[in-house]
Amino acid sequence: MKSLVRALALVTTIAVVSCNKQSTVEKLNPESNIAAAEAQPNRDAQLLAQLFASAGPKTQFFTVQGKEKVTVTTTNGNKYTIPAGALRRKDGSAPTGPISVAIREVLSPKDFVLSNRPTAAAGAYLLSYGEYFVRATEAGADLVLAAPIAVQTVVRTQVRPQEKVPMWDGDTTVYYTINGYNQLNQPTSVTQPASQDPGINWTQAPDYALFNATTGTLDFQLSQLLQWRNCDVFSGSTGPKTTVLGYFDVYNNDTPNSSPEQPSMLFFKPRNINSVVKFFNIILNAPAGFNGFLSYQSIIPVGQQGTFLAITALNGQFYAQLLDATIAAPASGTNYTPVSFNLQPVSASQLVSMIADLNNR
């Protein structure tokens, strides 16, 4: 196991501002502006979340006319073809003014980390062909689809020998209902969004994306707006699996009490696979030196090569370590594989560079 530690003294001070605790969907959706009752992250978690938000993938905006068929191309080279008349007001009428189309794409390990959108289902990693979100508005009012948007995406990772790629639904937001009374003391209810902890819960959708030999793209359709869709295939790993426990030497003890952002985090990037797994489970009742995270039980393939990224924000300072590793089998008489981390102080820019380096692993 080879440790790649990037360590330099912190030379940059970052001002802490109010952290946007909304998920990506909520930030794009003006109807989700009801404050959700949830635990508050600590100051270090806010500092880390602020950095991730500033360095993460950005929304791209396009102006179109609803009565015309139009194809827009993002800076990532992906094409979205909107049929004429496909965009409608919620009452079914056709928009008459210019339409703003907002598109967000999460495509690489760096994006997966900075957007808190790991590519895993029940802790098992998925080979990702990207995550996509589209919103359309007229004068600020959300529109709906009367016909699907055709999407052609550039294939940026290895192609598995299969005819179709499963589509997935998932988000960092869950919705719950509060029952109460309105201004006339009549029973009523309100549906409110809240950030889901822990993170994404990807569920397989009934449709698929198809490889297009003519264009060299992966093609699929979006039948709804304001909904994340993910193109993923199963990892296909076979053989024995283990539970990985990651021990942090620098750990923020407020991590179990901070939600949805956390001041300590652990990620695993499988070697040469466009995927990132986030370890959400916290080691409980740990003695000094053994605080940290563990994977789902018996989920990480023994012999899997990859890179861990351990991160902690503590007292306004960032600490991190990149660690290349091959997942070992549990020692005799145990049912887990331990990995110890030696986190070093890093600046904000150094941390972002370490996250970006996952794209090359």
Automatic annotation (TrEMBL):
Specify the domain of life of the species encoding this protein: Bacteria
Name it.
Uncharacterized protein
The major lineage groups are: Bacteria, Pseudomonadati, Bacteroidota, Chitinophagia, Chitinophagales
